[in-house]
Amino acid sequence: MGNLLKDKDLSDDRLFSLCLNNKEFSKMLLEIILGVDIEELEIIQTQKAIRNLAEGCKGVCLDAYIKADGKIYNVEMQRERKSWGNSGDSIVKRARFYQSMIDTLNLQSGSEFNYNDLMDTIVIFIADYDVFGKGLYSYHFKEMSVEREPFEFGSGTEKIFLNTKGFIRSDESDDLIRLLWYIGDSKDDVAKGSKKVETLSRYFNLLKEDESMEMNYLRLAQERKEGIEIGEEKAIRKLIRSKMDKGKSVSEIVKEIDTVDESFIIAEMNKYNEERNKVRM
């Protein structure tokens, strides 16, 4: 393999997601962002697909789903602003949707379920631009009352938006500021000044040199090129047909595209088979 990843910055969302598979890397990243020590990372899943149980409704694919110290963290890298029509940046509503879908993973059916057992969830978006245009390095959101003496709602949800282009500090640590600089310009000299970011930089450089990392990076690039977008019907139809052309069975396709309702997959497979049979006649 070549040096495809050598000059890539951590802001590259594909590379970032792959790096989060590394336990030490993920632990250090969360500790810098949260300003706390992480005792144990229990689960790390990147490109985590969550299927929407409502037929025909959109699922999600998370950059990283991490369970640590009794909390769930969703970490996303956003390189550029995405708008839909005249509705503006979609990232805020996406954070809301992602958090709601994460909760479905914690819901266990049955009479014994207690809503107080829902784990706290923190959705973290690292953006290579200023989502809110206020110049801050970080924006933290929790649900609060709007009465005269505000108090926290206590639902256990939090959303954090980090800005690599910030220039106004509030109470961010030096480590976090240095991390945000490093994400946008991942050179060793940018990491200097923070022991933690220097350690993260060493992890990052080692991971980029791993041959399997480059292969996985190319795999993700190909998948995106083919249009794999959870919930986008045209792309899902194309993907199903592509897998059929490769001789995949119904059960294999259902397993590999687990964010899509099985009935939709079967219906599309039947339709494609009919089209192919007509061509052969």
Describe this protein with a few key phrases:
6-stranded mixed sheet; alpha/beta; 6 strands; 281 residues
Word description of this protein:
The protein has 281 residues and is α/β, with parallel strands linked by helices. It has ten helices and six strands; from the N terminus they run ααβββαβββααααααα. The protein has helices at residues 13-19, 23-34, 91-106, 174-184, 188-191, 195-209, 211-225, 233-245, 250-256, 262-280; strands at residues 41-50, 60-68, 71-78, 120-127, 138-141, 157-163. It has a six-stranded mixed beta sheet with strand order 1-2-3-4-6-5, with helices on both faces. Mean pLDDT is 86; it is low at 84-88.
Summarize the structure.
With 281 residues, the protein is α/β, with parallel strands linked by helices. It has helices at residues 13-19, 23-34, 91-106, 174-184, 188-191, 195-209, 211-225, 233-245, 250-256, 262-280, and strands at residues 41-50, 60-68, 71-78, 120-127, 138-141, 157-163. The chain is built from ten helices and six strands; from the N terminus they run ααβββαβββααααααα.
Task: Please compute the radius of gyration using only Cα atoms.
Answer: 21 Å
Q: What would the average pLDDT be, to the nearest integer?
A: 86
Whole-Å distance between the termini? 46 Å
- Helix share, percent: 40-55%
